[in-house]
């Protein structure tokens, strides 16, 4: 058994997952309250709901950025809620995560930003060659040397997507990937993400306020006040 999802797409299963955050000395807020979901391999699924509904918290738990207070999460063959800290780090390296604010390193070129997640680890592929290939795939061939400050918001998000693909993940998570983009650029990023999913067969889970993006996914998981909405 491996802690890193393998194959073209990873199955995802969350069972009665709960996560609360302290809001005061004697108060807490249930961000995710008893959520159970099952996502089949290779599906593109959106997490939707108003601000504070729990969609980003659920996504972060799938990515092992947050640990649930209770419940279990399985991704591929791994029960990530039972992994040690060291094995969780290995799991995170094996999935792809795209954030709303890009999180590019400002002093690094586009190419080096793509390489950054695998820089400290051994790989069975040429890191620079794969990074160049991925920048070409996301439409940034020839911009390898550009710093983030010289790229538009849409281009920076494309670099972030290429970075998320560097390990050929079976699971790609995206947290409001169009939230900082204008509608036209956002639509182009949506098209890119869904085309990549179709080509590579990976499972994709996207937290979004964008109804167009949600509608373009295979299915929607709707949340409100930390709970699933039926229908």
From TrEMBL:
MF terms in GO: ATP binding; ATP hydrolysis activity; transmembrane transporter activity
PROSITE patterns (UniProt xref): ABC_TRANSPORTER_1, ABC_TRANSPORTER_2
Keywords of this entry: ATP-binding, Nucleotide-binding, Transport
Keyword Transport: yes
Database matches in Pfam families: ABC_tran
GO CC annotations, alphabetized: plasma membrane
Keyword Phosphoprotein: no
Positions of the ABC transporter domain: 12-229
PANTHER family: ABC TRANSPORTER ABCH.1 (PTHR24220:SF86), IMPORT ATP-BINDING PROTEIN (PTHR24220)
Similarity field: Belongs to the ABC transporter superfamily.
Subunit structure, interactors included: Homodimer. Forms a membrane-associated complex with FtsX.
Known role: Part of the ABC transporter FtsEX involved in cellular division. Has ATPase activity.
Identification of the protein by name: ABC transporter ATP-binding protein
UniProt organism field: Kitasatospora indigofera
Lineage per the UniProt record: Bacteria, Bacillati, Actinomycetota, Actinomycetes, Kitasatosporales
């Amino acid at each position: 058994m491996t802690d890193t999802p393998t194959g073209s797409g990873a199955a995802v299963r969350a069972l009665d997952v709960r996560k609360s955050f302290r809001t005061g000395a004697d108060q807490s807020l249930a961000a995710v309250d008893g959520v159970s979901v099952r996502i089949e391999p290779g599906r593109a699924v959106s997490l939707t709901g108003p601000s504070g509904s729990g969609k980003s918290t659920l996504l972060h738990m799938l990515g092992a950025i947050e640990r649930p207070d209770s419940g279990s999460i399985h991704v591929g063959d791994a029960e990530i809620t039972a992994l040690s800290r060291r094995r969780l780090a290995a799991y995170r390296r094996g999935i792809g995560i795209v954030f709303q604010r890009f999180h590019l390193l400002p002093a690094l070129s586009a190419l080096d930003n793509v390489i950054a997640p695998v820089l400290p680890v051994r790989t069975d592929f040429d890191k620079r060659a794969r990074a160049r290939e991925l920048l070409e795939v996301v439409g940034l061939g020839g911009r390898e040397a550009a710093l983030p400050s010289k790229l538009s918001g849409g281009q920076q998000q494309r670099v972030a997507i290429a970075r998320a693909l560097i390990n050929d993940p079976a699971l790609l998570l995206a947290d409001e990937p169009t939230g900082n983009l204008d509608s036209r650029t956002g639509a182009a990023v949506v098209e890119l993400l869904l085309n990549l999913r179709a080509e590579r067969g990976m499972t994709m889970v996207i937290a979004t306020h964008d109804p167009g993006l949600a509608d373009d996914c295979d299915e929607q998981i709707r949340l409100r006040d930390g709970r699933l909405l039926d229908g």
